[in-house]
Amino acid sequence: MRADRLVAILLLLQQREQVTAAEVARELEISERTARRDLDALGMAGVPVYSVQGRGGGWRLVGGARTDLSGLTAGEARALFLVAGPASAVTPTVRAALRKLVHALPEPFRAQAEAASSSLVMDPQRWGSSRVAPRPPRFLDELQDAVIRGVQVRLGYVDRARTGTERTVHPLGIVAKGPSWYLVAHTEAGRRTFRIDRVSSVDPTTDPVHRPEDFDLAESWREIADEVERRRTPLEAYARCAPHGIGVLRMGFGARLEVGGATTDGRIEVVIRGNDENKLAGELAGLVDYLEVTGPPGVRDHLAAIGTVLVARYGSQRQRPRTAER
Question: Could you give all domains of the chain from N- to C-terminal order, each with its CATH number?
Fold first, then answer.
């Protein structure tokens, strides 16, 4: 959602000699604090924007009124317009705004910026998977609008058990996780996450959102994702791994792997999470060349059972190499 605002601020700076944080806040229906943070972000991103202090001050682009954004380098212009291309996940509104903005660029940059917007295509579908793209959830736009305007909503929601409820929430942000969309919100019970495809109704109010001063959506989502992962994989298996096997474990288990310190014999202590002893043992059975599972006993018992079955099924089928006939 922030990309929408930054592009809108760029367009405002194009149209006016200078803008104040209050004007930006009023135009975009955000707080002055958010407006100042976004203006600072433009400068940190390399856009030639600077502030004029004192009475009559505000924010300007280098070059004065109706600047041609000549402060942008060719590389910065290309990077900016990559987000407008078909590989981008931004909204059609952002793409349209950026394509309008291309006409404000200096002539030498214009062709490269336009080429950048069509230079990359990303196909998220795996080979052999369905070509049907999931539709955005029904109430995504309404919730996005509530987040941007900073207003509370009365939310109808159907949980996993198909129980319908209604509550007033403070929308703080929206996250796309794979094909699913989530609303991060503050409620009377604390911070909660709602799958937007389970939202049954959205009724915006005029009451402002109470947003924690130190709230950061990206950091908040990392905490939520870590907690969900722990709930999905509550079982922990402890093991010692040969150093050359750590890379294989990282590829195979990802966030389910925790790497500890070295043991006295040079191996590495690791913790691997799962949700079932039998399934986890099956995943670990093929790693015996460099992994020794030390616990829990249930996982070790399943590994021993797997080994017994493998020996019984394949051990007697081994054949000695034939000798050549003379």
Answer: 2-116 (1.10.10), 140-230 (2.30.30), 233-315 (3.30.70)
